[in-house]
Specification:
The chain has 466 residues and is an alpha+beta fold. The chain contains 12 helices and 28 strands. α3 crosses α11 (442-453) and α4 (234-246) runs antiparallel to α5. The protein is globular.
């Protein structure tokens, strides 16, 4: 195709992929990227007449998770793709015709979670080769599409009436995890309400116990709450959850389960009492016992953990005995409670997060520490990728949540020469890392767990449940 016959496009253009049921999607045109990709989640492989296929869901519109296209396609490959940030990810590859500027041709498309990206689709140079010329200073050379037209393409079905009244008890409405839970509930027809923990207060009264929200609004008519309590406000958050439980509101994680999981020492004692394997751990109050405490866990190197730490903060690797003594005594001089734990060198800066909902491991990812860091935590710059856990690891995660009484939990496991070891159980695990790494709709699974607990279906009303 000569230059005169090639399609001239800007840095962003509207296109369509009818085979996937996508009438319009805004694509980022990027000649720096080799492969094209589309935002997909809930990716499920299956066989059709002995051939590998996948079903998946697409959010075709930017900043809109309520609009969902369900699709399926034959798998043509599964390959490692490196993103612009340098992260490598194994993706499914499909083929479909793309329609742009009154032209259509078949391209390869990789499926990945692009929630953190600005565009739901990326058009790479393999799809453009021989057909497209790019003017990076322009946009929508081939025409823009009005909001009214987009709305007509993706007309939303009427909301289901009679959904549950669900409160999300948390602190930050802008947090990815909280936004996803709110959207997932609304997508399934429920009345969702964000409740800022600090703006809730309660009345203890044997005749008429109540929970109020800012301005005096009474919250007693909620059907359920999904608690996501920050470690720093565990005491007050659990007090509120107990009050909801007392007035008959279902809580996805109970106050008792959250309290147990937040006490790192107590939770490890509970888990070990049920025969679950954990790294050798020591705890002492007096600095006089520091030497014996270090010996207790096998000497240096060792891990020192503050009991009040979260998301990898308050965790120190002491590589020598002298360093261990200094760190332990420094923390104790500040009257900080801490654990001393055996360092699992063979884990090589990696751990596994199993996400458990309602007694099932619905997703799992491996986290790898950045160079020079021993903590495998995405909040500290680590990388996350989907991983298939072993039956032993899955069993460990399920037993841990059962022991602590949690319906929803992120269970952290480390692989050692002696087998999988349990590190921690998080009662308010973040969703962004694991949804991006696995493409699974974790928030939707949490809403389904509430529905099952209350025996709700789309034909019922909230009054029937109550």
């Amino acid at each position: 195709m000569s230059n005169q016959a090639k399609i001239i496009v800007g840095s962003e253009e509207w296109c369509s992929i009818p085979k996937l049921g996508v009438p319009a999607i805004k694509a980022r045109v990027d000649s720096g990227a080799r492969t094209s990709s589309i935002h997909a989640f809930n990716i499920q492989p299956f066989k059709k007449n002995g051939v590998a296929w996948i079903s998946f869901e697409i959010h075709p519109l930017q900043k809109n998770r309520a609009t969902i296209i369900r699709s399926e396609a034959e798998v043509v490959d599964r390959r490692i793709v490196k993103s612009s940030s340098g992260d490598a990810e194994k993706r499914y590859v499909i083929k479909a015709d793309i329609y742009l500027a009154d032209e259509s041709w078949e391209i390869e498309i990789t499926l990945t979670n692009r929630d953190s990206m600005g565009f739901r689709m990326l058009l790479g140079r393999e799809a453009m080769q021989g057909r497209i010329l790019v003017d990076p200073s322009a946009s929508f050379i081939q025409g823009n599409i009005s909001a009214e037209k987009i709305q007509s393409f993706y007309s939303q079905p009427a909301k289901v009436s009679g959904g549950l009244r669900i409160g999300l008890l948390a602190s930050n409405p802008e947090l990815y995890s909280n936004q996803r839970i709110m959207e997932a509930g609304e997508e399934r027809g429920h009345e969702m309400q964000f409740l800022n923990i600090k703006q809730c207060y309660m009345k203890l009264d044997p005749e008429s116990p109540e929970i109020h929200y800012r301005g005096g609004k009474v919250l007693n008519k909620l059907d359920a709450i999904i608690p996501r309590v920050r470690p720093s406000i565990t005491f007050y958050g659990c007090a509120l959850i107990r009050q909801f439980e007392n007035i008959g509101v279902y809580t996805l994680n109970s106050s008792t389960a959250i309290t147990q999981s937040r006490d790192k020492l107590y939770s490890l004692q509970l888990l070990q009492s049920k025969g679950l394997e954990i790294p050798t751990t020591g705890f002492a109050n007096s600095p006089i016992d520091t030497d014996d405490l270090i010996e207790m866990v096998g000497g240096a190197p060792l891990i020192v953990k503050l009991l009040e730490g979260a998301q990898g903060r308050g965790v120190v690797l002491a590589e020598t005995r002298k360093a261990a003594e200094s760190v332990i005594n420094a923390f104790k001089s500040l009257r900080a409670n801490l654990l001393v734990q055996k360092f699992i060198k063979e884990a090589d800066g990696k751990d596994i997060r199993c996400f458990v909902v309602n007694g099932k491991v619905i997703a799992s990812m491996q986290r790898t520490a950045p160079p020079g860091e021993f903590r495998a935590n995405v909040h500290l710059g680590g990388q996350a990728s989907q991983i298939k856990v072993t039956p032993e690891e899955k069993s460990l995660a399920l037993k841990a949540t059962k022991v602590l009484g949690l319906k929803v939990a992120g269970v952290d496991i480390i692989r050692s020469n002696a087998g999988p070891l349990l590190l921690e159980v998080n009662s308010s695990p973040g969703l962004e890392g694991i949804e991006n790494a696995t493409g699974k709709d974790i928030s939707g699974a949490m809403i389904v767990a509430v529905e099952k607990a209350l025996k709700w279906n789309r034909e019922m009303t909230a009054e029937t449940v109550r």
